[in-house]
Amino acid sequence: MPVLVGAVFGLGLFLLIRALVPGKRSALSQVARIDALRARGAAALAADQPPSDEEARRLGSLRARVGLRAAEFYRQQGWEQRSLRADLAVLDRSWETFLATKVLLAAAGLVFGPFVFVVVWTLGFGSGPVIPVWLALVFAAVFFMLPDLEVRRDAAGKRRDLRRVVGAYLDLVAMNLAGGRGLPEALMAAAEVSDGWAIRRVRNALADARITGMSQWQALGNLGEELGIDELKDLSASLALVADDGAKVRESLGSRAETMRHREMAEIEGSAGEKSQSMLVAQLLLCAGFLVFLIFPAAMRVFQQG
Questions:
Q1: Buried b vs exposed e over 255-286: b needs ≥16 C-beta within 10 Å?
Q2: Which residue of 36, 134, 167, 224 could cross-link 233, Cys pair, CB 3.0 to 4.6 Å?
Q3: Predicted pLDDT of residue 235
Q4: What is the structure's pLDDT at 244?
């Protein structure tokens, strides 16, 4: 117990020092702070409009204030959380809303821990005064980390779908190039064959590149950086090298699409193998339980007679 108390005290002292001494801000965090201040002003203007539902407005305003405060604290500390931001970008969720959810769930955990202690205490399993504090801290930490686990799980699934779509998209671009179109026209034409969320993200990135004067392969690279998709970043780099040679572009796109299909097939086979192993373990446990069910009565009779 003294070692555990000392560890918790040291962790609290470390977090206090980190909170009082802000980290070095990067240029990205400074630009994000300016954007957040601008968004805060827009949110304040929108809040002046008469709401349709008073209760929903109160909850939404509280969540928005908590999210803005938490995002400001993260910026002051220099915590960019790039991988987590990429996961949220894949899911098309707001960073401030995500932080507000984490903080509110942690607050709920602080209340839920003592509530569990009250239930346990009424059953007669505990009476120490320190137990409610530990339960509150443990539940607050667990509830604070739950949104991260959910976001990473959902983002991993959507990234798999996006990679599958990118592989088909590369085949369509190669076919458009074989039909005589240039690379910019082939990229945009291949992005207009569907209205799914993944191909729509690609199409929006290409349309924004036309407006801003950016090359389309650079826009694909920026999209891959934003969403954490390495295939898009590699595609951007390869297109920048061979953009002037149509034959090399077709060969590069075809080989890249084939590589992505082989990788996807390998992942599917690996997932199927894991599921087969889990089913085998479940069958073995079921057989062991059935054998215990058959042997136990006979063994009890032998022991009683002995």
A1: ebbeebeeeeeeeeeeeeeeeeeeeeeeeeee
A2: 224
A3: 79
A4: 57
